[in-house]
Amino acid sequence: MSRNPDSDTIPLHSTSQSDIDEIENLINSQPYPSSVLPARPPSPPRASIPISSSPLPPPAPPLSSSSNSTKPIPVPPAAAKLPPLPPSSNTRSNGTSNVGGSSSIAAAGFGPAPNTLTEPVWDTVKRDLSRIVSNLKLVVFPNPYREDPGKALRDWDLWGPFFFIVFLGLTLSWSASVKKSEVFAVAFALLAAGAVILTLNVLLLGGHIIFFQSLSLLGYCLFPLDVGALICMLKDNVILKVVVVCVTLAWSSWAAYPFMSTAVNPRRKALALYPVFLMYVSVGFLIIAID
Amino acid sequence: MDLSPPAGENYAHPRICFFHVLFKAAALAFYILSALFVNSFVIIFVITVLLGALDFWVVKNVSGRILVGLRWWNEINDEGESVWRFECLDQESMARINQKDSWLFWWTLYLTAVAWIFLGIFSLIRFQADYLLVVGVCLTLSIANIVGFTRCRKDARKQLEAFATQTLASRVTSTIQSAFSVV
After folding, report:
1. Is A39 domain-assigned?
2. pTM of the entire structure?
3. Which region ranges are annotated with the description Disordered (chain A) (predicted)?
4. How many C-beta neighbours within 10 Å does residue A202 have?
5. Cβ A53–B87 below 8 Å, yes or no?
6. What number is the ipTM of this complex?
7. Share of chain A above pLDDT 90, in %
8. Total tally of structural domains belonging to chain A
9. In a domain, A199, yes or no
10. Domain for residue A223, yes or no?
11. Is residue A21 part of a domain?
C-alpha cells in the first residue's frame, strides 16, 4: 500500500484490503472465541484518536471518590445500554459533538478515554460486563464504605435490570403449571411498567433523580427476589416459600431504600418509598401464589 | 439518500456489516417464523427480545463506531445531571468512511424500525397484546439507536461545517499574509 505523504487521503481500496487482511490475521491468531471480531483500529495513517469532548479524567470505580482522579484509566463510562431515549426535561444542550479540538464541556466530571471510538470489541464487552457486576455489588450487597448513595449508580446500565426481569419472569413462568405465557407476560409488563411508574412518582414528588438511573436501580434491586423465586421454584413447601419471600423482600426494600430516600424531600420519603415496597410485595405474592 | 448502494468500491468492513445485519434479521425472522413452529410465547419473547438487545448493543458499540465513526452515550456528572454525549471521529477519518458501509448502516437501521412498525400493526389488528409487547420492546430499541445516531450525525455535520469555514478562513488569512510578505 503506497501512501503519498503530502496528501491527506489514502485510496480507499488499499485500506479496505489491508483492514480485511488485518482482521483475517487476527482470526487466525487470537486465542479466544469471540463471536464478534475485535475491531482493529484503522491503518496508522488515519488519525485513530478522536478529539473528543473533555480532556477531563475518566471516572474512577464507583467506590472511590470520583472527581479528582487524573489517572487515565482505560475504562471509560461509555456505552449506556438499553433504551436511553433522550430525557426531555433534563437534557442540557451538551449533546454537541466534540471534534476538531473544540473547547471542552467543563461541566462534566467525567470524560471518556480518548480511544473508545477505536477500541477493540472485546474491550467493550469486558468493560460492560464489569460495569454490570460492579453495579450489582454496589446496589444490592451491604457496603459499609458506600459513600453518598445518591451518587452511587452513576454508571447506570440497563443490561442488569433486563436480565433480572427476564429471569424473574422465566422463573415464575416455569413454576406455573398452567397459563405459563400469561404469567410471563404479566410479570414482565408489571415489572417494566412498575419501574417506569415508580420513577415518575419520584420525579413528580419533586425529587432529584435521573430517569434511567432510577430504572437501573429498581431493576438491580430485583436481584434478591430473583434468588427467592429460584429457591421457591426448586422447593415447593409453602412455609419455606413464605419465609424466603419475606427475607428477600426485606432485602430488596433495604437495597432500594437509600437511593429513593435521598432523592426526595425528607417529608415525602414515605410517599416515595411506599410504592416501591408495594411493588415488591406484589411480586412476592406472585412468587408465593404460583404453584 | 439513494436507493442503491454506491458503486465503485467494496465494503471496508464486511464482517462488521454482516454482524450489523445479522441480529436485526435474526430477530425479525425469528419473530415472523416462530409463529409457525414454536408454541410457547415465552420462548418467542425471550429469544426475540434477546436478539433485539444484542442488535442494539452491536449497533451502538461496534458497527456505529466502525462503519460510520459515531458514538453516543449518557453520563451523569458531578452535579447529578444527565448529559448526553455525542462523539465522532475527526474530520480526516470521517472523510475516509467507506460510502457503502455507511449506506448499509443507515438503510438497515431505518428499515428495521419500519418492519417492526408493520409487525406491530399486524399484532394490533389481531388483538394480541402479548405479541405487541415483544414488538414494542424491539421497536423501542431500534428507535433509540436511530435517534442517537441521527443526533450524532447532525452534530458531526455541524462540526464539519464549522471546521471547514475555520480552515477556509485561516487559509485565506495565511495566503493574504504571504502575499503581503512577498510584496
Report:
1. no
2. 0.68
3. 1-105
4. 23
5. yes
6. 0.78
7. 17
8. 1
9. yes
10. yes
11. no
